[in-house]
């Protein structure tokens, strides 16, 4: 049975099916509200399993604005704790990534086990035996993992992660195939900030429309084959709304499934790599590795903070209404050929990061969106491209051409659902 | 002493701190003046321009860097700044870099290792940013004078979030 829930009119003034109000980028009060209503009420990506491969491995992250620690305990369970001592609020860890057996607050020495339980309190006699340590564990979030992607949520009664991912699961599975039979592993990351709202970056992950213009200098610098493969406006790609704010943009339809077409000719740019690999691997595996080395031909946008973007993870971290931190996590083949991982590192460095040939141009544009959004606050940001020929799919999603703003419409519809809840 | 003798002395004497320092300043001046063709001519054909992320990184080839440029990538990086195709480099940020605290770590007649501090200020579209770095050079002496064989720029905040760097550090 469908029960229509009326949307509060105030939200209709902010988001409609094909547009969003400019103040979504600029309104501080709205930002504060988003950090709770969106980020504390959905699944938020916090880590890839390879970042905490062994017991005791941890990394620090954020869920919305709340600092968290993602840690693997001795029994291999992953926990996500709010990085805040239960005594007087200091962070118990300020290291980006590492290995530990406990977290000890530097202020008064309260010590927590990896599962978050409070184990030690210095000079405990001062509490006259009345301190019930079981009441002062680190606050923990619910944690679930799908195919190596670890998500956490503050919302205890939220749907299971697999249901939240829904139609995106199949695309995650396809994305993971770029390990070419080896487990996917984080090879490090580029981190940069831009002076703009987080949703500007969220939109960009399924925006093919900007590519030929904003990334012209990248295309000019790339070799001919790479330039041709990035001719994404003319390759019959599409954008699909996958539900729950997720979307996929297929830019290179020939690279959707990296385990198909292994008989296709090896691109000239990878011939030297293939020759090097042949010394150690049979031909079929060489072809599989070479086909996977450039990543897959699509960007998967998982609402609200992760992009599985061709060959890397794009992680989005709101800082303030007009400041956003982005991490581009390079991915490689764990235990795979060093030559292939080197090729992946060089491809990543070429486009991504603050000195790449792509990222600085994206960052400049997002900066200009934020600047421009100071004008005409009553105007709409238009998201209607490709709507007139968007089709409903039998399985329930919606699909339009590669440069359609279908993915943005999906994200803003989810934003509106969460903000209206 | 005739001219031939002078050349022989120059070829066998170790590269001096003074010589290396002046060469580093020449390179800095060419970058700040956007004289990219002259800048590219300072490098050996096999040289690498490297901006690592992690402090202490040494295996640059097998590690993610901000930049790991061979001659071809240096040419592309320079071209990007003059092509007018890159919105983040139109116009290119103006930069002023100061190199100081020079120390010659090793030197002989053919090659030397120089380490120094670099303070760079960029200005573009009303925004000023500063990047501090330790810079390590390997220079080779050839017939035409010193050439850069390797340059490693170790930003003090390399592991932090940086802004877009639409110029050559």
From TrEMBL, chain A:
<dbReference type="InterPro" id="IPR015879">
    <property type="entry name" value="Ring_hydroxy_dOase_asu_C_dom"/>
</dbReference>
<keyword id="KW-0411">Iron-sulfur</keyword>
<feature type="domain" description="Rieske">
    <location>
        <begin position="45"/>
        <end position="152"/>
    </location>
</feature>
<dbReference type="Pfam" id="PF00355">
    <property type="entry name" value="Rieske"/>
</dbReference>
<dbReference type="InterPro" id="IPR001663">
    <property type="entry name" value="Rng_hydr_dOase-A"/>
</dbReference>
<dbReference type="GO" id="GO:0005506">
    <property type="term" value="F:iron ion binding"/>
</dbReference>
<keyword id="KW-0479">Metal-binding</keyword>
<dbReference type="GO" id="GO:0051537">
    <property type="term" value="F:2 iron, 2 sulfur cluster binding"/>
</dbReference>
<dbReference type="GO" id="GO:0016491">
    <property type="term" value="F:oxidoreductase activity"/>
</dbReference>
<dbReference type="InterPro" id="IPR036922">
    <property type="entry name" value="Rieske_2Fe-2S_sf"/>
</dbReference>
<dbReference type="InterPro" id="IPR017941">
    <property type="entry name" value="Rieske_2Fe-2S"/>
</dbReference>
<keyword id="KW-0560">Oxidoreductase</keyword>
<dbReference type="Pfam" id="PF00848">
    <property type="entry name" value="Ring_hydroxyl_A"/>
</dbReference>
<protein>
    <submittedName>
        <fullName>Rieske (2Fe-2S) protein</fullName>
    </submittedName>
</protein>
<keyword id="KW-0408">Iron</keyword>
<keyword id="KW-0001">2Fe-2S</keyword>
């Amino acid at each position: 049975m469908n029960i229509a829930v009326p949307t509060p009119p105030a939200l209709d003034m902010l988001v409609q099916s094909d547009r969003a109000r400019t103040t979504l980028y600029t309104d501080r009060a709205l930002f504060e509200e988003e950090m709770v209503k969106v980020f504390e009420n959905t699944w938020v990506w916090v880590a890839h399993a390879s970042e905490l491969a062994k017991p005791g491995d941890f990394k620090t992250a954020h869920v919305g604005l709340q600092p968290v620690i993602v840690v693997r305990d001795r029994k291999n369970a992953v926990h996500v704790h709010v990085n805040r001592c239960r005594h007087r609020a200091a962070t118990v860890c300020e290291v980006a990534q590492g290995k530990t057996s406990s977290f000890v607050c530097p202020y008064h020495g309260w010590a927590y086990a990896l599962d978050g339980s409070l184990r030690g309190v210095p000079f405990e006699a001062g509490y006259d035996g009345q301190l019930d340590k079981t009441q002062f564990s680190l606050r923990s979030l619910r944690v679930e993992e799908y195919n190596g992607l670890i998500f956490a949520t503050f919302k205890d009664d939220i749907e299971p992660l697999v249901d939240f991912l829904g139609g995106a699961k199949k695309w995650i599975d396809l994305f993971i195939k770029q390990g070419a039979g080896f487990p996917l592993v984080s090879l490090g990351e580029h981190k940069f900030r831009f002076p703009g709202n987080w949703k500007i970056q969220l939109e960009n992950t399924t925006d093919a429309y900007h590519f030929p213009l904003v990334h012209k200098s990248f295309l000019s610098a790339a070799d001919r084959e790479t330039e041709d493969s990035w001719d994404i406006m003319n390759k019959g790609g599409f954008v699909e709304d996958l539900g729950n704010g997720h979307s996929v943009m297929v830019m290179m339809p020939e690279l959707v499934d990296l385990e198909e077409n292994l008989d296709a000719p090896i691109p000239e740019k990878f011939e030297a790599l293939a020759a090097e690999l042949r010394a150690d691997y049979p031909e079929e595996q060489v072809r599989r590795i070479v086909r996977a080395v450039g990543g897959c031909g699509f960007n998967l946008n998982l609402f609200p903070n992760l992009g599985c973007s061709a060959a890397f993870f794009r992680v989005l971290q709101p800082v303030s209404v007009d400041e956003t931190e982005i991490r581009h996590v390079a991915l490689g083949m764990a235990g795979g050929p060093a030559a292939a991982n080197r090729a992946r590192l060089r491809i990543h460095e070429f486009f991504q990061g603050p000195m790449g040939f792509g990222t600085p141009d994206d960052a400049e544009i997002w900066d200009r969106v934020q600047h421009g959004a100071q004008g005409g606050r009553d105007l709409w940001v238009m998201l209607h491209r490709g709507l007139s020929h968007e089709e409903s799919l039998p399985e329930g999603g919606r699909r339009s051409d590669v440069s359609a703003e279908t993915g943005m419409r999906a994200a803003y519809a989810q934003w509106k659902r969460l903000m209206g809840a | 002493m005739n001219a031939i003798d002078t050349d022989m002395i120059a070829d066998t004497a170790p590269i001096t701190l003074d010589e290396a320092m002046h060469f580093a300043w020449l390179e800095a001046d060419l970058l700040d003046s956007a004289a990219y063709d002259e800048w590219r001519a300072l490098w050996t054909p096999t040289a690498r321009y490297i901006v690592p992320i992690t402090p202490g990184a040494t295996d640059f080839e097998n590690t993610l860097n901000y930049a790991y440029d061979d001659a071809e990538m240096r040419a592309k990086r320079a071209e990007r700044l003059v092509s007018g195709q890159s919105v983040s480099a139109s116009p290119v940020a103006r930069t002023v870099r100061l190199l100081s605290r020079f120390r010659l770590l090793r030197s002989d007649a053919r090659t030397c290792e120089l380490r120094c501090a670099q303070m760079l200020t960029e200005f573009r579209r009303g925004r000023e940013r500063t990047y501090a770095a330790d810079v390590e050079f390997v220079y080779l002496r050839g017939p035409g004078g010193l050439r850069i064989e390797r340059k490693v720029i170790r930003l003090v905040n390399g592991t932090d979030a940086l802004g877009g760097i639409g110029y050559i550090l």
